[in-house]
Amino acid sequence: MPTIRQKDTVKKLIENGGKSVSGAMRKAGFSDAYAKNPNKLIESKGWNELMEKYFPDKDIAKAVKGLIKAKTQVRILDRKGKFKNVRNVPDHLAVSKGVEFACKLKGKYAPEEHVITNKLTDEQLDRIIKD
Fold this sequence. Notes:
Elements: H1 4-15, H2 21-27, H3 32-35, H4 39-42, H5 45-54, H6 57-68, E1 71-77, E2 83-90, H7 92-105, H8 122-130
Helix pairs in contact: 1-2, 6-7
């Protein structure tokens, strides 16, 4: 069963356009210490109940599918500068966002890995540090 603060957090999150879960938590009355780690809230049973109520999986899937199939109109000019016809073409920005979101939802993204290699010699590093 969701708590009053969890319900208020969802309202605040919708108001701020989903930009900051931590900010929404603070505005809903959670302590700064708790709001610094929103995963505790997100992983709670009450939060998951709220998410299913307000953002059911079927609605998310429908919205993502709509993004993937989004079209935009393109007007084509003839040589005289008059519009010849209008064509519907894929809206590449919407399609890429939809595909990216779908992949994230399905866990298809591999965790990001950052490899830092040091190709400088010890002498080069010493010179950089001294300068």
